[in-house]
Amino acid sequence: xxxxxxxxxxxxxxxxxxxxxxxxxxxxxxxxxxxxxxxxxxxxxxxxxxxxxxxxxxxxxxxxxxxxxxxxxxxxxxxxxxxxxxxxxxxxxxxxxxxxxxxxxxxxxxxxxxxxxxxxxxxxxxxxxxxxxxxxxxxxxxxxxxxxxxxxxxxxxxxxxxxxxxxxxxxxxxxxxxxxxxxxxxxxxxxx
Length: 192
Fold this sequence. Notes:
Blueprint: E1 13-17, H1 29-34, H2 46-51, H3 55-70, H4 77-90, H5 94-108, H6 111-120, H7 128-142, H8 149-157, H9 162-185, E2 186-190
Antiparallel strand pairs: 1-2
Helix pairs in contact: 4-5, 4-7, 4-9, 7-8, 7-9
């Protein structure tokens, strides 16, 4: 078994659960129904199989996740990934940070943005658009009670409208929740 990863990386990671994942051949009808919709409509991960232990919750969570991260209109996919990356960075969720950093690079073709975040952390010096998204994600995750006019002013200054700001808030919030859940249910490891 590989060692747990504790530093931010772009390397492909596995998430190894502490909690026993549901085995598809032993799943209840409710679990199988909840598993019919997967995040990003791809393979069923160990994380989702762990969440399937609570089928009712998973049946609500996955469509919500897909709507937040993949719906058309509003904030760009890359912008949503920066929000999710900011939350994952603050929460030190190495696995989620790797996934969102790689997706951002894939979508936006801007590895230098992620390199700067991974190199300088909260002191990252990013282009104005990415800086505003990242700062908002950091503030909303680390100090939600202090988010107000100042942060929204910066989002408006880079041209975001209400729907784009709402998309950013949702992407940050769902990963604030997911990061904390992933920490308690397992840990990231380098893929073997």
